[in-house]
Amino acid sequence: MFVVCMQNVCYVSKDKNMIDFKEIPDWWPLCPGYECTQRENCLRHLAFRQAPKGVTRWECVLPTALDSDSCCYYQKAGRVRMAMGFDNLCQQLHSRDARHDIRIALTDYFGSKGSYYRHKNGEMMLTPEQQDMVGEIFRRYGFEGDIVFDKYEERHDFTTV
Questions:
Q1: pLDDT by residue (tens digit) across 120-130?
Q2: What is the torsional sign of CA 8, 11, 15, 16?
Q3: CA quadruple 81, 133, 145, 105: dihedral positive or negative?
Q4: Rounded to the nearest 10 degrees, what angle do helices 96-110 and 113-120 cross at?
Q5: What residue spans define the domains of the chain?
Q6: Residue 134: which of 94, 91, 83 has the closest Cα?
Q7: How far lies 119's CA from each of 17, 62, 80, 160, in Å?
Q8: Any residues with CB less than 8 A from the CB of 9 and at least 6 apart, and which?
Q9: Rounded Cα gap, residues 9 and 102, in angstroms
């Protein structure tokens, strides 16, 4: 069962494809998908269909993105296990050098110090692929325990354009 809130009204839904429109970043393109055969399983189309009435402008995928039966913007609908924060992992590191090396490697991976700290502190979600990379980097520098993030949530993945 999922609770989704839209326009100050909360709904309880058994449909795990129900989307809380507030979760969608304003840069993430939606798709009307009128002629697409994959539209019923595409997160972009489901998000388009669930846009609240007050939304009048949004970035959209154009029909020209559809090349025969495939679309380069197709994103499978469904929730994934997103993680938030790896501060507890960092605190388990006993070596100051390992903490430094991991911070440098993850800063390079995330692209900036700010992005590193937002991910570390749980302000930005980690996709399953990012979770794997964080775990790989921790292990590369000698971490031997279980890779357990600070918090997990089942969410739709709105991280890729």
A1: 999 999 999 99
A2: positive
A3: negative
A4: 110
A5: 21-77, 80-156
A6: 83
A7: 25, 32, 17, 16
A8: none
A9: 43
